[in-house]
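The authors assume throughout that readers already know how a fold can be written as C-alpha cells. For illustration, here is how one protein appears when written out as sequence plus C-alpha cells.
>
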Amino acid sequence: MDIRARLGKNVRKLREAKGWSQEDYADRAGIHRTYVSDIERGRRNPTITVVAKLAKPFEVQPGQLLD
C-alpha cells in the first residue's frame, strides 16, 4: 500500500473512532478541512510537520500514523 494511502486510512480510522467530523478534526489539528479530506483520500503528500499536527489530536506519535 502506498504510504499516502496508509496515512489516510489510519487518520480516517482514528478520526471516526473518536466520532469527529473532518471539520472537528481539522480544527483540533490546526489545518483546513479540505486538506484533511485530501489526506484521507491519499491525494496529498504532507510534510513531517503536518504529520505531527495530524497526530497531536489523537495523542499518538507521528510514526504511528504511518504503520
